[in-house]
Amino acid sequence: MSLIFFSIIALLTLILVFWVISRILFDGKWEYSIYFLLVFLPFYTTILSITYLATGSSFAVNIFQYLKEIVVLSAVLSFILYQKNLIDYPFRLHRIDLLFLAFLALAFVFLILPIGEASLLNKTIYFKNMLIPAIVYFFGRNTKFSDREVKRVFMAIFLIAIGAFLVNVFEKSTDTHLQSFTGYALFHQEINDIEPTGNFGLTWTFETQAVTKRMASFFSDPLELASSVLLGFSAGLIWYLTSKRENWFIYTLVMMCSMGSLFMAASRAAFLAFFIMIFFVAIIFRLYKLILSGFGLVLLFVIYTIIFASDDFYYFLVDTLTFENTSSLGHLTEWLLALDSMIANPMGIGLAMSGSVGSVEEELRVGGENQFLIFGVQLGWIGMFLYILILAMSILTALHVFKKSEELMTARIAFVAASVKFGLLLPLFTANAEVYSYVSWITWWMIGYSVYAYQRLKHIKVQIHE
Predict the structure, then answer these.
(1) How far is residue 254's CA from residue 227's CA, in Å, rounded to a whole number?
(2) Which of 176, 219, 161 is nearest to 420 (CA)?
(3) What is the pLDDT of residues 143-197, one digit of tens each?
(4) Among residues of the chain, what percentage have pLDDT more than 70?
(5) Tens-digit pLDDT profile for residues 72-99
(6) 213 SS3 class
(7) How many angstroms separate the most distant Cα atoms in the chain?
């Protein structure tokens, strides 16, 4: 059975890769790399798991593992080759571009200098993982899509959101994680040297403290699903708000499926992030009644918890808020370890020394459950502040484009970019959230697309003044 699933996945992936690579290399449509990333990244870990389960070959796993890098590098090559005169290409640098360049330059210095105890190979892999989102941002900065091509991006996001929920329904109805069928535990044990943990033979991430299942659908884990939900909901919401009312059903369905997956993932940080994003949207559209309704729901929730909730739920909530809950205490411990390292080494201790990616060896890891502190530990206070500035400028720029752009599709992309990046601020405090490649890379592409639109708006404004 696993061999049949692998054959189907391999065939579909081959078709996708062939279509994208042919458009990239033969037609110069390097921008189409975003279509591959949209479709491939949500299934990435599931594809690798099934590949190893069916073949038992690490080489076969490596072929699928590096497809995303091959596509991205092919797009870079196509961009260079299809420029009539690359020297004359109009690189109009925005503040975010400069911040990204400074951030990567700092990381490159840490790569080539003998700083830290991590091996050069691990540092190189870690730098590669930092570089690719920046390249995807660069793609967005230079993408010129028609409305039809932008619509394809959103249709892919809609299908991913609906598909994820349908898999969640299957998981719930069978009371079994999809990962129990895909060889998830075997893949991590044999390839990543990670032993199965928890009560369900996967990892602790797949269960709550009450030993109930947290579903991940076809994503790598419930936390990635929970963060990716923000992308689907935001995309559905902006299409609902900016489309004719007779087309309400599909966008409402996307939002409902996204919310359903959020409940299945059972992530407290994602729940709070979702409400933060809704508050952000309410501010943008001046939906003050929505804000008051939100406060009312919070008040009702507090009253329910105090008067009607079970003792287990009540103390679970109190322990979470007071950091006496095991999970919350774990976050706090990791933060303190990271801050202690940053105080002792304000200039950083080197790449691949913090975080939860495969290139970080467990015995060398310092902190790792806060994206800001992860960069702070490795790149020092300067690196952390550069990352914070990139996020802040990205949200503000995308918001400006949403408000000022007269191109509907561009405004929609800017809205999703701003709202999702804002909503992800909370998960960034509790996880190494930049490793969630689907939501991270796609929103960085959207930020780049928004910055390109911002530059066009600025250029038009200068022409008018002249």
Answers:
(1) 15
(2) 161
(3) 989 999 999 999 999 999 999 999 999 999 999 999 999 999 999 898 888 888 8
(4) 89
(5) 999 999 998 887 766 666 667 889 999 9
(6) strand
(7) 70
Per the model's pLDDT, the better-predicted residue between 116 and 398 turns out to be 398
CA-to-CA distance for 10 and 315, rounded, in angstroms? 48
List own/partner pairs for 146-152 with CB under 8 A and 24 or more apart.
Answer: 147/408, 147/409, 149/31, 150/409, 150/410, 150/412, 150/413, 151/409, 152/35
124 token code pair = 């190189």
What is the SS3 assignment for 207? Answer: strand
409-435 core/surface letters (b: 16 or more CB in 10 A; e: else):
bbbbbbbbbbbbbbbbbbbbbbbbbbb
DSSP per position, 65-85: HTHHHHHHHHHHHHHHHT-S-
CA angle, 28 as apex, 26 and 29 as ends, to 5°?
110
Which residues are CB-neighbours of 351 under 8 A, at least 6 positions away? Answer: 107, 110, 111, 115, 116, 118, 122, 123, 126, 127, 378, 379
- Phi and psi at residue 35, in whole multiples of 5°? -65, -40
> How confident is the model over 260-283, as pLDDT tens digits?
998 888 877 787 888 888 888 888
What pLDDT, in 10s, does the model give residues 365-375?
888 788 999 99
pTM attached to this predicted model: 0.91
Question: Measured between alpha carbons, how far is 29 from 369 in angstroms, rounded to an integer?
Answer: 38
